[in-house]
Amino acid sequence: MDYRENFDVKKLTSFKIGGEIARVYFPTDVDEFLEAIEKEPNAFIAGNLSNILVSSDGYDGAVILTKKMDRITFDGKKVLAGAGVRGTKLSKLALENNLSGLEFMVAFPGSVGGEVFMNAGAHGQMIADVLSCARIYSPEKGIFTLNNSEMEFSYRTSICQRMPYYVLEAEFELEEKSSSEIQEKMDENLSFRLNKQPSLTLPNCGSTFRNPQGDSAGRLLEQAGMKGFVSGGVYVWENHANFIINDNDGTSLDVLNLMYEMYKRVKEKFGIELKPEVRYLGGNNKKEVEICKILYQK
Ligand SMILES: Cc1cc2nc3c(=O)[nH]c(=O)nc-3n(C[C@H](O)[C@H](O)[C@H](O)COP(=O)(O)OP(=O)(O)OC[C@H]3O[C@@H](n4cnc5c(N)ncnc54)[C@H](O)[C@@H]3O)c2cc1C
What we know:
Order of helices and strands: EEHEEEEEHEHEEHEEEEHHEEEHEH
Bound molecules: flavin-adenine dinucleotide
Oligomer: single chain
Number of strands: 18
């Protein structure tokens, strides 16, 4: 199995931020995943690093990156995808097979594992709408399968956020449609994203904060005057205030300082405490740890 020590992860993250990770494993299948997790029971599991802020001061532990667990099998209206399959690739293959249901993933930078963990969604569709079951690993139970209702999906969450459950594979049940109909929906989604979400040419990590119930984090942040606000090498995107862009070799501390400012202003103006959607992986920088204690309330 591909294994690296003191691995510089910066280029692999969608934020283009991050220092060295002490030990990184790149399993290509379930057997290699098991081998890695047996060696490193406390490893952090990551997919395509499109929703994680890795500290510029690095991470001293082990990370299992599922990126290479990328097998895809179509069987009639069903598709089985490894945890590391990119959402965008899966949506394109579904189109080639005249299968509808994954059009929302068309420009998703995340992996299937990360998307199931997050119940990722867009354009009125989400993982919970199409997932039939997921093959899970937990240190206590080993490998087992959970069906859709057992995944306890709701807005940007699943059981995997409450239990140490790691997604190995996911099966989706899709609907047969003409490729022109599917393509049309994908084009619609893509053009919507053009103005509302930054593409990866502007390094970012997706939505910074979760939407509070009945409201939008972007609206609150805009009203709090955050659009264009600069912190070191990063800034709040002018088109949507819930996105942070790294345009000048920003660091994780630049991002966290900015997240704290966003959180503080919304709390002062609206009395709402925004909760981060972006995850943090680090721990070597005292200032970052202090900010995380407030933001993540840990
Ligand atoms: C440009 C851009 C656009 C985006 N658009 C959207 C969008 O429209 N909708 C949306 O919902 N999100 C969006 N995101 C956010 C992000 O892509 C999703 O949250 C995605 O689900 C993260 O997947 P990942 O593989 O990159 O996960 P990572 O960033 O690697 O990890 C994120 C979390 O998932 C956990 N995780 C990863 N893999 C597994 C696994 N196999 N088993 C258990 N847990 C796992 C990690 O431990 C971590 O806590 C966007 C991000 C970017 C950068």
